């Protein structure tokens, strides 16, 4: 009886391992969470490239009214996916995917010029530890939300985009609740999931050295791209290549 139980257990374990391997070999879902002071429309070029390569891409349009609201918005989109997903986050949303990425259906994480926190860290604590070159963040009159001065948006966020694109982004930006920037992250998903990091070497919104330091701490695979903070819009092909490489690595 004991031998039969062990054999049954071994068969069940093998079956589960085969199922997991099959899922890992067939990652088609890419869920992208846009950063603060922008929205998902800037990811159109990267999305088009990935979809032409056979991936199913969904953009989370999180409200940035609170950190918990943004994690919940991401979870709602992940709930809609059929099979495992690669979770991608830009800027502030590196915080979001670090939390939401603990789900078992998230296969891995890609940080695109993003914050990559450890437990108990907030965006503000990380940013203040190694300040960026840009200092044009302002508060709304009620003191509850933050935005990037439109006059400085191109320089600090999207210096390598055409002027008209940068101006459109400046005037369509999503204001961020201060609470979202102050919220502390729980156990980070990168401790148990593989991660990839894109460092934007000309970034004026997050210090590139901070991006490097966070990625090294997390053991991420790092790609450096000469770009502004809006690397997803200015260098879509290179960003898509990193995302595809992550999928292939997870599928091996």
UniProtKB/TrEMBL annotation:
Its protein name is: Alpha/beta hydrolase
Instruction: Give the domain of life.
Output: Bacteria
Pfam families found in the cross-reference section: Abhydrolase_6 (PF12697)
Q: What InterPro entries does this protein map onto?
A: AB_hydrolase_1, AB_hydrolase_fold, Sec-Metab_Biosynth_Hydrolase
Q: Which organism is it from?
A: Ferirhizobium litorale
- Which PANTHER family would you find in this protein's record? AB HYDROLASE-1 DOMAIN-CONTAINING PROTEIN-RELATED (PTHR37017), ESTERASE_LIPASE_THIOESTERASE DOMAIN-CONTAINING PROTEIN (PTHR37017:SF11)
Q: Does the keyword Glycoprotein apply?
A: no
Could you list this entry's UniProt keywords, alphabetically sorted. Answer: Hydrolase, Signal
The UniProt record lists the keyword Transcription: no
Which N-terminal stretch is annotated as signal sequence?
1-24
Start and end of every AB hydrolase-1 domain?
A: 30-241
Q: State any single GO MF term.
A: hydrolase activity
